[in-house]
Design a protein that fits this description.
The chain is of the alpha+beta class. The protein is 49% helix and 22% strand.
Length: 393
């Protein structure tokens, strides 16, 4: 219909009055239908020109944000009727900044004894008939219930995770406590039998007690580290520099174990927002797992590459692999296939990656090896580096 009207305008001098009236009536019907649609939905909509003068606002709008109620807002400046300075500043900064992409933010308002959260989204709209004139669509969405549901879901997930972790801790603590109980009982029996004990006679019992106490302490320390929020302090840094440092650190130990370390990452990549210590720990946890998966001799390959808006760091080993049924459990606290493992290594890696707004993926084939991929988002300001590394891309 839009193209038809444009063609009609181009040929307006060839149309008679009846045809012009028919076109105008058709346009009126479409406008009424559009207005009825906008009035029937729960979101607020404001259409404003480049000077933020309102062209249209549906009746829901003043119920969502602090705004003077008028019968019609047409031709009224937005700053004359919208009384919340934070929402107005957000919209104004987007318009004055002449941003070509949409932008959104959330604002909270006191409504009676309740807090209402409104998401404000600003969409620029450029009229095809005029390249210079831009108008803006401002959408107001009540996300109060959605945010509450998300918060409930997070609390539920956190509770489920804590329940799993508590069960894991109970299981881990049970064995050293049992060993301590047995050796205390043996120590008591030995004392009753001899009526006195020298240190040398009691030494083997005390040694076991010391070992089990140290083991209990390690379990508690690991548990606290797993549940405590990670204090991540990110700054722009080179992931390649970090990979070099980690590889230099682990290579002597890997060589001693008969494992070859290969580096397949380029010399330069865009910088990332990373916490060096946290990412080092994540990489060392994964490399340690890879090392334990290689029984005799093998290879660990550390790579990194650009993939769209991310940098993907990969750690690939030629170890025994992970069974398909175990892949879905490897990030669960205290899940481990090794008798000496704590089952917290990948849990910690997962937490670190989430703190970096990244992700982790694991692919494995039994008997062939495992590949762990860490995905880091490239900061928007670093996309220029992509062009420098890949000119003409």
């Amino acid at each position: 219909m839009k193209n038809f009207v444009r063609r009609a305008i181009e040929k307006i001098d060839q149309l008679d009055s009846k045809q012009i009236v028919e076109i105008l009536e058709s346009q009126c019907r479409e406008m009424e239908m559009l207005e009825a649609t906008l009035e029937s939905i729960e979101d607020g909509f404001i259409l404003a020109d480049k000077h933020l003068r309102i062209l249209y606002a549906n009746s829901v709008t003043p119920t969502l944000v602090p705004m003077i109620r008028l019968k019609s807002y047409e031709g009224v400046a937005l700053n004359e009727v919208l009384h919340d300075p934070h929402v107005l500043a957000f919209i104004t900064s987007h318009v004055e900044g002449r941003r070509i992409e949409s932008e959104e933010d959330e604002f909270s308002f006191q409504k009676g004894d309740q807090i209402q959260t409104i998401k404000v989204t600003v969409y620029p709209y450029k009229d095809a008939s005029s390249a210079k004139e831009t108008s803006f669509v401002i959408r107001l969405t009540d996300v109060t219930e959605y945010n509450r549901a998300e918060a409930r879901l997070r609390r539920s997930e956190s509770l489920a995770s804590m329940t799993t972790m508590a069960a894991g801790v109970a299981h881990e603590i049970k064995n050293p406590l049992a060993a301590m109980g047995i050796h205390l009982h043996l120590l008591k029996k030995a004392y009753e039998r001899n009526e006195s004990l020298t240190y040398e006679e009691a030494k083997r019992y005390i040694g076991v007690l010391d070992e089990e106490i140290a083991r209990l302490n390690a379990i508690v320390v690991d548990f606290l580290f797993a549940v405590r929020p990670i204090d991540v302090r990110t700054r722009l840094g080179r992931i390649t520099t970090l990979l070099d440092q980690v590889c230099d650190f682990v290579e002597p130990e890997l060589n001693e174990a008969g494992i070859t370390l290969k580096r397949t990452y380029p010399a330069a990549l865009p910088r990332l927002m990373i916490d060096n210590n946290a990412i080092k720990q994540a990489l060392l946890n994964i490399i340690k797992n890879a090392m334990n998966a290689i029984k005799d001799s093998g290879t660990i390959t550390i790579g990194a590459k650009i993939d769209s808006n991310n940098i993907i760091v990969s750690i690939k080993d030629t170890g025994v692999g992970i069974a398909e049924e175990a892949l879905g459990k490897i990030f669960e606290p205290y899940y481990t296939t090794r008798s000496s493992g704590t089952g917290l290594g990948l849990t910690v890696v997962y937490k670190i990656m989430k703190e970096h707004e990244g992700d982790i993926q694991v692919q494995s084939v039994v008997g062939a090896g495992t590949t762990v991929r860490l995905m880091f988002p490239i900061p928007s300001g670093e996309h220029l580096a992509l062009e420098e590394i890949h000119p003409g891309r």
